[in-house]
Each structure stands twice: as structure tokens, then as C-alpha cells.
Amino acid sequence: MTRLAIVGVLCVCAAQPLRAQWQFDAGLAGTREIVQLRGGTSAARLTGSLLGGEAVVTRGQFTVRLRYAQGRVANDSATRDLAVGEAALGYAPLSWVEILVGPQARTFVASGISDRRWLFWTGRVRVRGAIVPDRLASVVEVWQGLRGRLNRPEASASGGGVELGLEARLARKPLTGRLSYRIEQGRASGGIRETVEGFTLTIAFRR
């Protein structure tokens, strides 16, 4: 069913009128992240920084968005490399509302081996509100896992999250700055839970 939905979106996007313009945004992002892990009676809190980027291609009402970041989180007793990736297809029924679907993954790596990976198929709603027209806007994005898996221990998973941000466009420049706060959580059987908070600064170039 998910594959059919993706194929349908791609076909409709390809059929957009020729007058619709392609728009491309590419950005660099830095995130300060707090990760709280809980499994049964054990718990850990790790903090660290991630660097990454995003690419957004838009034509008419349709969008393709790719995001990736990696870095390291640690506490006094443990250090983990962390990689986060997301791919989403979006449709905007209104100029200020966008609906997106696609996979999202978070992988913790220790000694070169993946020791925990969360993978979700997500549904998202993204809403923009103009504060200063064409200069400053608020951005809210809410997502819910439609289906999810945790690889260690192997289990089905559920999750969701929200991102709140401010986006500013520089006058006479094709640059956009976005400062956002994100909180999300993944849950699996056995009392396993991961809560993530992050502050992200993104600088994007539009062409």
C-alpha cells in the first residue's frame, strides 16, 4: 500500500503542467541534541552535536525532501556515533499546509557496529504562518509513525514528534535561516523508550 501511494504521488507530480517551475533548496544544519534512553529498569542520558544537510525539490504543489545528519552523543560512561536520515514526499493542498509521507531512521553505532536502529514510516503535517510577509515565518511540523521497527531487540515500534521553528529570509539574497526545536519519541515492547530533544540551526540556499 505504501509503495502504491509513492508511485501515485510521483505520477501526479510528473503530470504537473509544464508552466510549473522547479525550485531547489539545499541547506547545511547543525544540531545540539539530548538523547534519553530507557530499557526496562536501566536509563541513560547522552548529549552531543550533529552536522548534516537537507535538499528540497519542489514543483507546483509537490515536494521531495531529503535530510541526513551524523555526529556523536556521550555521557560519562558511554559514547555512541549517531546517524539520522529522512526521505519524504509531500503535497500542499493549501499554500500554508503540506502533507508528507516517507521513512525516517535513527542508528546508534558502537565500535563500527549498529547496536540500535529505529526505522519508521511516517505521516507528517507541516504548517507555515507568515509573521512578516516574505521575510519571517513560523513553521510547525507534526509527525506520527504509521509503522515502525526496532532492530535490537527485534520488535515493532511506535513513535511521533513535533518540530517548532522560525524561518527568516535575507532581503535580496537567496538565503534562508531556520532555528527550530524538535522533540520526538520512539517506543517498543519491554519498556524500551527513546526521547530526543534538539535545537537545530539551518542555513539554506534557494535556486
Question: What does it look like?
Answer:
The protein has 207 residues and is mainly β. The protein has a single domain (23-206), classed as OPCA outer membrane adhesin/invasin (Lipocalin). The chain is built from one helix and ten strands, in the order αββββββββββ. A ten-stranded antiparallel β-barrel has the order 1-2-3-4-5-6-7-8-9-10. The two termini are 34 Å apart.
Could you outline the blueprint of secondary structure elements for this entry?
Blueprint: H1 2-14, E1 22-39, E2 42-59, E3 62-74, E4 79-94, E5 97-110, E6 113-132, E7 136-151, E8 154-169, E9 175-188, E10 192-206
Tags for this entry?
mainly beta; Lipocalin; 10-stranded antiparallel β-barrel
Summarize the structure.
The protein is built from 1 helix and 10 strands; from the N terminus they run αββββββββββ. By secondary structure, it is mainly β.
- CATH names the topology as Lipocalin
**In what range is the share of β-strand residues?**
over 45%
Largest sheet: 10 strands, antiparallel, barrel
Gyration radius (Cα, Å) is 18 Å
**Distance between the terminal alpha carbons, to the nearest Å?**
34 Å
Helix content: under 10%
CATH superfamily: OPCA outer membrane adhesin/invasin
Following the backbone from N to C, one meets helices and strands in this order, namely HEEEEEEEEEE
Give the low-pLDDT segments: 4-10, 12-18
| Structural class category | mainly beta
Number of helices: 1
Strand arrangement within the widest β-sheet reads: 1-2-3-4-5-6-7-8-9-10
Q: What count of domains describes the coordinates?
A: 1
- Would you report the number of β strands? 10
Q: Overall 3D geometry?
A: globular
CATH architecture: Beta Barrel
| Name of the level-1 CATH class | Mainly Beta
Average pLDDT score: 89
